[in-house]
Design a protein that fits this description.
This protein is of the alpha+beta class. The chain folds into two domains: 166 residues, Sandwich (Jelly Rolls), CATH 2.60.120; 109 residues, Orthogonal Bundle (Arc Repressor Mutant, subunit A). It is built from eleven helices and eight strands. A hairpin with a 2-residue loop joins strand 4 and strand 5. Helix 3 runs antiparallel to helix 4, helix 8 packs antiparallel against helix 9 and helix 8 crosses helix 11.
């Protein structure tokens, strides 16, 4: 597996990368890789197979695929020809996370699921992606505003059509409000020594009750969730900041660089230093 990062976005003033891939580029499946961006793919010609999380997702012309960040995947084109268009972006770069926290129906993506992949047919989304591609190719004044608007519309349609959530992911409004408070707290204090008791007291819950509720709603226990936040921050620091591993470990609140490396390897099967080399 390799690690891929869109380090040089090609949309003016936006952290977005757009890529067109023809079947002739590859004679065999691409190398399995991961990256910190969400990936929205449309099959614009022929057919292909997306391999992700040990599953196969056959695509033909007009199909759309959503792949969450940090999910290993690869592409295999089928003869005689094929082409895909890919839009890479981070949800946080669009301030979408704060926006989506106001909508319980959008809970699925906020669960930080390690395996969220959706294959679907939607003429509306296909048209929005096509408009993104058209705006990018023409690059007329303020085209980046149209790109951003269409990305947000795509996310809205995917939630409305339940491509990114399902009825069972909806949660009680009162609990959701409490969790919004928790998310905001973790955004500001993820690098501190935060215990289950601390956040239980913050939200006014019994510790045992909060532990069960959090596990039910997110699929993770609290310590796993906090660690995942820190590791996601580590990916950003490794890719964008001139900091050594010890400095990053300290900034993230790990007890030592050795422990940081140990935890990082559980997620990415390599050390932070090795991961950084893959990004360069």
């Amino acid at each position: 597996m390799s690690f891929f990062s869109v380090r040089n976005p090609n949309v003016k003033n936006l952290p977005v990368n757009i890529q067109h891939v023809e079947a002739t580029y590859f004679h065999k499946p691409t190398t399995p890789h991961i990256h910190p961006q969400v990936e929205l793919v449309i099959c614009s010609k022929g057919s292909c197979i997306y391999h992700a999380e040990h599953k196969q997702f056959p695509m033909s012309e007009g199909d759309c695929l959503f792949v969450n960040a940090h999910i290993e995947h690869s592409t295999e084109f089928l003869p005689p020809e094929g082409a895909i268009d890919i839009v890479y972006f981070r949800l946080d770069d669009f301030e979408s996370r704060k926006l989506l926290r106001t909508m319980p129906a959008a809970w699925a993506l906020l669960k930080m699921s390690d395996t969220h992949i959706s294959l679907f047919q939607s003429h509306i989304i296909y048209d929005y992606v096509s408009e993104i591609l058209s705006e990018y190719k023409k690059s007329e004044p303020y085209y980046e505003m149209f790109v951003k608007a269409n990305i947000l519309k795509i996310l809205g349609v995917m939630y409305r059509e339940h491509q990114l959530n399902s009825p069972e992911t909806d949660i009680d409004e009162s609990k959701f409000e409490k969790l919004k408070l928790l998310f905001d707290y973790l955004d500001d204090h993820y690098n501190q020594n935060i215990s289950l008791q601390t956040v239980s007291d913050l939200l006014g819950f019994n510790k045992s009750y909060f532990s069960r509720m959090f596990k039910d709603l997110t699929g993770h226990n609290f310590s796993e969730y906090l660690t995942k936040i820190r590791i996601n921050k580590a990916i950003q620091f490794l890719g964008t900041r001139d900091l050594n591993v010890s400095e990053i470990s300290n900034m993230l609140g790990f007890s030592s660089p050795t422990y940081f490396t140990e935890v990082f390897k559980k997620y990415y099967q390599c050390t932070p230093a090795e991961f950084r080399k893959k990004l360069t």
